Amino acid sequence: MGGRRAIAEEILTGVAAGGTEAGGDAAYDCARLVGMVAFDSHDGVRRTYDAVAEPYAAGFRDELAHKPLDRALLTALLEQAGAGAPVADLGCGPGHVTGWLAGQGAAAVGVDLSGAMVELARKEHPAVEFRQGDLLDLPARDGEFAAVVALYSIIHLTAAELTRAFQEIHRVLRPGGRLLVSFHIGSEVRHLTEWLGRDVDVDFHFFTPDDIADELDAAGLTTYARLERGHHPEEVETRRGYLMAHRR
Hints:
Layout: H1 7-11, H2 24-41, H3 43-60, H4 68-81, E1 86-90, H5 96-103, E2 107-112, H6 115-124, E3 129-132, E4 145-151, H7 159-172, E5 173-184, E6 189-195, E7 198-205, H8 209-218, E8 221-229, E9 240-247
Parallel strand pairs: 1-2, 1-4, 2-3, 4-5
Antiparallel strand pairs: 5-9, 6-7, 8-9
Helix pairs in contact: 3-6, 7-8
């Protein structure tokens, strides 16, 4: 979904595929309809990140330089996936994490809901592939990736949408493929209507680690590591959760 990494830090303050059996055509049409509904239902998120794409990219280009834990978890994921493995970065924004993954030797692909974010990512990282798409209807083949990164990309999903999103991640992962997902811990929803002088419309959903682990399990993904941390000095004061899982 829309480029939603570290911009979440400021927003959280409240400031500012087809069927192959008989009837396959109908199944294909149904799947496409679900995808279109998903895209339309997240129009506010898409427009939000389209609006803030340039200042966001400028402000968070070096985000990973200040987050050693994130780098360590990403490095562990890449080691488990294997050298040169195809890795998807979901909610990639302007591509700073995707670019980092590519720099470590991964065949990285960034996916984002925001067309403006994808355009900036392609300019910033011309040698890396970026695709526009929704978490509920990923633009990827079945079993295309050895690993998936979803750093704070699920936080614009409702609890009801998590199931579909994790089913999609399961679909695009190879058997045994790895997932790293992060989120803000809690049970609240925060809404923002203004950001960087632009009108926006976006909700931030908090989740508990147990809720995420249960949803992953229901989608066929087994959690094998979990971690919680407090905020860095420059971050908004929320607890953050990280779960690592593999596809059954």
